[in-house]
Every structure is written in C-alpha cells, then in structure tokens.
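Q: Structure for this?
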Amino acid sequence: MSRDLVLTGLGLVLPCGDGIDAARASLRSGAPCFAELPESLGRGRGAACADFAPAGIIPPMQLRRLDRCSRFAWGAAHQAFADAGLDPRPLGERIAVAVGTLTGGSEATEGFLRPYLQRGPEGASPMLFPNSVANAASGHLAQAFGLKGPSATFLEWECATFAALEQAARWLRTGMAEAALVLGTDGLFPLLLEIARGARLLARHGDPVAGSGRGFLPGEGAQAFLLETRDHAEARGARIRATLGDLAGVPALANDPAARAGALGEAAAAALGGAVPDRWIGGSSGSPRLDPSESALRRAHPDWPEPVHPKLLWGEFAGAGGPLLAAALLEPAARVLVTSPGSFGPQYAARFEGVRL
Amino acid sequence: MSPAPAGRIRVAVTGLGIVSSLAADREATWSAMLAGRDGLGPLTGLDLPLEPAQIAGEVPLAAARHQTRCEAMALRALEEALDGLAPAGDPRRIGVFQGAGTSGLPAAEAYLAALLAGRSHPATEAASQSPCRVTDALARRLGARGPRATVMNACSSSLLALGQAWERIAAGELDLAVAGGAETLCIATYAGFSSLKAVDAARCRPFSRDRGGLNLGEGAVQILLEPLDRARARGAVILAEVLGYGASMDAHHPTAPHPEGEGAARALAMALRTAGLDAAEVDLVSAHATATPANDGAECKAIRRALGSAADRVSVTSSKSQFGHTLGAAGAFGAATAVLALRDQVVSPTLRLAEPDPECDLDCTPLAARERTLRAALVNAFAFGGNNVSLALHRWDGR
C-alpha cells in the first residue's frame, strides 16, 4: 500500500479571476492586481476578488448569509471537486476539511461589533455572529458539499494553510479520512486595512517590491486543494496533478531576522532533503519581516532558480499561504519548492513532485 | 482496552495546570468542584449594562503590559503543569498545540471603539494580536522548536489541540507536548451569544428540564503529554493516559447541533475506535453540555448512539455548571475534569440539576460529587459549524 499523498483537484478564487487558467495567465504576465478598493472593503489599495462570480454555485439565500471568506471558500471548493472529478456526497464521512486563514471570522466580527458599539444590544445582528468564528467557512462547506469527516481551522500568521495541509496529510496517513479538502481563505474588510495602515505595514508608494522592506498590499481569495492517498486516487482513476513531498514548519526561537531566516533555511532543507528544485515559489511580499528570510535563502543557494512571488501580484493574506501552494501547481515541473516566511512562529516550506497540468 | 496498535507510542498525561473562576490552581479548583462550589458570579470585567444577562465565570488575574489576559492565564497554567520540570533534550521534539480563544480580540475591540469615537489609538497592539501569540508565548517559555499549532475550531478548539498533541506523540515524533487553551471574556462573544438568545440571565442548568442557555466563562488549562515509557523512566507522576480522539462534522447547521446527535456520535465512535476501547469500558463522559436547549438533549442522544446499552452505566458531568462556557478553552477544561476524575475515582457534580430533562436520560451526576470506579472517559467538545471532537482517556493503573 502506498503512503503517497497526491493532489487531484485544484480550485482558485483570486484577485486575477476565478479558476486555474486565470491564475496561470496572471503569473505568466506578472501584472499586479492592485487597485483602489471600494469603500465597503476598506480605505486604500489592495487586490480584491472583484470578478468573483458565485451565481450558479452558491444559492442566493445562502450567499446572503456568508462572509467573504466562506463565499470564496465555497467557490474554490466547488472548482476543486469538479477538477478532481469527485462527487463528495457519497464519500462525505471520509472527507476531512482543513482550513488555513489569517482573517477568517474577522470581517463578521467587525460587522457585528460596529453597530453594537454604537447602539448596544439593539444593534447586534444574530445573523452576523455565527460567521465571527474562524471556522465558519468549514461549517458552510460541510453543509454545502455533505462533508462529515474531521475538520480543523488553523491560524498561523501568513502560513496557516501550510499547517492545514500538514494536518490533512496526517489524517490521510492515519486512516481518519480517505480524502481531504485543504483550503486557504481570506477576505478583506475595512478594519483590517485600518489596523494594517495604522501599524505602518502597508506599502504607501506604488506596488510592493520583494526585498524592498517598504511594506505589502493586502489581498483576498481562496484556494482549494483536494488531497488523496495515491491508492484512493488511482482506484477511482483520478488525474494526479502532483505528489505532495515533504512539508516542514520550523519555528524561529528568537523574534529577529536572523532567527527567522535560519528557521526558513532549515524548513527548506527539510522539505527538499538535499535535492535542488527546478521551480521555486516564494512568500516575499514587500514586508520587512518576511522578505529578508528569502533573500538569505537565495544568497545561500545561487544554484536554485529565481523565486516567483505570487504575493506581489495577488497581495498578502489572500489565503494565508494558499496562493503560494496554488502557484506551485500551475506550471509543469519535476520538483517545486514553496517557501513561506512568517512574521512570527514557524517558517514553512513544502515540496511538490511531478507537477502536471 | 485493546493493546495499542503496533508502532503506536502510549501517551501519558504528566502535568496539568488550571486557572479557573473557582481558583488559580489545579487542586483548589478541583476541591471546589467536588465540593459543589460555583465559579459563576456577577459580570464585572465587561461594562455591558444593557445586556439582560449579567453573570459570568471570571478570573481575577491581570495581565502584564503588552500581554493579553489569555497569555497571562495560559502561562500561569503552564507553570503549574510543568511543576518545576525544566524541559530537556532536543527542543525540536517539544511541541505546543493550542485551541485558540478570543486572545487579542479585546485589543481589536478597543481599537474599533476608539475609531468609532474619533479618538486616536495605537494600531500596533491590535495588529500583533493573533491567537497564535498564546501558542508562541508558551513555546518561548518552553524553548520549544518542535511543531506548534493554533486551532480555531470555536468551542472544540482546545480538545482538537489535545488530539493533535496525542497523535504527534503516539507517532513517535515528540518527547513532550503542551496542549490546551485559554479564553478571556470580551464584548464580541458576550454580545454575540446574547444576540442568539443563547445566554441565560440566571445561572446555567445543564441537562435540566428548565435549562435556558449558557453563561460565559474564562480561564486556561494546559496539559503536559509525554510518551509513557519516557514518563516512567523519569519517575513522573502519571495522571492518566490519552488513548486517542475522534472528530467529525455535522454538515447540518451553522450553529445548531444535529438534533439526533448524529455527527457527535460519529466523533465519539471514532474516538472509541482510535483508542481501541469497548463502549462497556467507558465509565465517564465529560460532556460539552452548554445548557442550551438544543445541545444537551442532542448530546445525550449522541452518547446513547455511540455507547449503546453501556450508556446506562456511564456517569456524565458538565463542568460548565461550575465555570460557564469557556469557548475555545472549554474542551481542555472538560479534559482536565476527566483527568482528575480518573486520578481520584470521583465524578464532579453537575450543579443546579434538580429536575433533569427526560430528554437527558443519562446519569448526569446531579448536585453532588460521586465516588465510583472509573476506567475510561470520553471528553466531548462541539462547536459552531458542526465541528465535533471527542477525546478518549484512561485511568493510569501502573500497567
């Protein structure tokens, strides 16, 4: 019996548009998706999923009850199951859901609190409060697709979707599930922009530049990955997009650039196991907390290819590492390294093998 | 109990720290629980005079500067769990797993309130207030460089974190793990549950015919897990053994449990399977039991579905009658209750259970603690989104 885990489905809701083709075209063009945000999402520039089209996917009654994270997650999951050729309902009890997010629940929390703080209990909306938990998206997906296996939602700064992928892999390897839907999802909301600007995290002049230290711009979206054991995928004749290699999260012991860079280097080494990648997806975003770690890695490995930086096109957050994992699957490659530096906590790296279109 | 599957490491609970509304340490909390004391009292930590309910389980603990109350409570609970142990060995084999609570949400609330009032307020505090900060603070204290996870599964968060810690040690990946959760009262959760009409203006009454909802509480529980052989080799006091966990989703409703407890029963059954336990070996269920009309009846049905006729012999208890609902930390509070019950062979009472609901037709340990033989226990935590977790524990009998 093979313990290999394979990716058989991919679904993407991104600022560049919905679906794999839009994402691939965006990465190839290298054109950033930043624009002035509508007031409803916040003050300033960012990468919004302005073209997200849930009609025909999310029933209108449900759509009204969902926060942006859950809407994007639903759209991406719908695509991933279709891409994998899997009807989830008959297998529901054996499908796990693992979600990574940085902002999940926060949009609804702000939406709930604003009128409450102004008007007291009469301003409180019982419709909004259930979405104020970070795991709201997983609950909505469970209902939408009949998913009844284990579920976990992770917060891990900019790297939460790596933590979700790790847990999903564990559930598959221990037999607690046959397939797992892994998601990264984030939505923009006004308070996020206010806090990020107030804390001087955002790029103030033009688009973000990797290594500049001038700050990032925020983004939103969802990425859905259907992960299966190779045996399960082959038994149902699924097309395999890639094999999940090693994944490593290494915490920095001290809160300083050298410690973070060291931890990211260790994570990359553990993920690669001595091999050299032929494609590298990096998590630099213009942030002075993230970019130096990858710069150090580049200097240490001049033989590696130049990294591709999806956050410079689609924004920071945008699925808490999910866009990096997605970008790894958009071009054929024998071995892809994905590195995800984080502001605090573990620094992550993952390796995919045999990426096919 | 079946022998552990080949290759699986047995996992011991060797430390437990509790900061609760009953007391600031484990033994005082446990004594108070057994004595039937109530940790619920007047709401003083939040100024919400228009809320109909003014009751909560509050912890009188102040945080240091640049520290959240969750961090302060979690670190205090960790010190008690360590009981002087200085973690040694490879720091990459020490893990930290936390169920996230509100954590830094009060900082975001303060920022938003200032914004709405047109006052300036520093954003840096709110920007750095992720629930991951508690996990990171615990890891720093331990010098841990192993895996860490911050789970945000609402009210089942910390029980799932315990499950994660167990699976890492059982797989031989870690020598030591700290798992648990910390929760503090805040406006969003208090007002949110109130808006759902889920908060009782009186003290909550789990399993009662007239139960009218939950009370909110705060506190922290941290649990130390180690490979059993390693714990024995260092002469550690072993409080209980963790056997496994189960998890499931209801796929039913965003906030309400499945009325027949279908999803919850699957989590319990998975926990039994993973643990290699027969239903007849389970003597205790530390229940989720929030005292909401929807939860307690569905949970009792779930216990019956999972345990079958063995449910008639099981003792069920609700620690929420003492602490209130500690949300992200609730699963860890339930686990702590079960660990101490297994250690001392006594079940803590469900307070104010004078008139049981016929729908809750199990022995829910009304009013007074009860001594009895306890072999295995299940701990339940259920959450918004239909996220269910059940953890299996066993008494440590020296074998």
